[in-house]
Amino acid sequence: MKVMIAGAGSVGSSIARELVINHHEVLLIDLQPEMAERADLEAVKWLIGDACELAVLQQAQLEEYDVVVSATGDDKVNLVVSLLAKSEFGIRRTVGRVNNPKNEWMFDDAWGVDVAVSTPRLMTALVEEAVEVGDLVRLLTLKTGEVYMVEFTVPHDSALIGRSIGRISWPEDTTMMAVVRDKTPFPPSADDVIEGGDEIFFITTPHAEPLLRRTLRDATR
After folding, report:
1. Is pTM beyond 0.70 here?
2. Which of 13, 16, 167, 180 gives the lowest tally of CB atoms within 10 Å of its CB?
3. pLDDT tens digit sequence for 10-26
């Protein structure tokens, strides 16, 4: 997979390193020439320039890439890069970093963003996930806000314990994706029985999320 990353700061660099380790081809675009001299990113291709400029993206031959990640510390830049990637180069998948949670509402398909990743929101979710048992925690917003990934840790006194997954009436537009039990993930089946401490991951929609929350809450009373 070919991935272009705008912004070689701590976030962009970390993403680039992980992608290279997983054998993906990565191009980093950054304004600062000294970034390209970093020894920890030798396997990455570089282009020094402003990723908001159409000429720079044309020089990068962006149309040949599968994914564009806008990872700068400036939300305006991330929005412009995503919009150009979609509208001018037809990039199939764009990921935009949200620095200020107040700007999250703009990171949608109107600006060419397929997936918005808000570091503050994600960190908050991870903190909640670490301390909140018995509550639904939103981990990630996918597909321009139309889909959520959420997590629920089953309390040890929950009425869900001992029930088969297939015998529970889950809301429409909600899919159980995985269960983590004793630090081991597995794909759930209708015959699997829920145990206390299970971490259950769902894909749901903004409309279905409150219904899912109510289903789980009623089962934990």
Report:
1. no
2. 167
3. 889 988 988 998 889 99
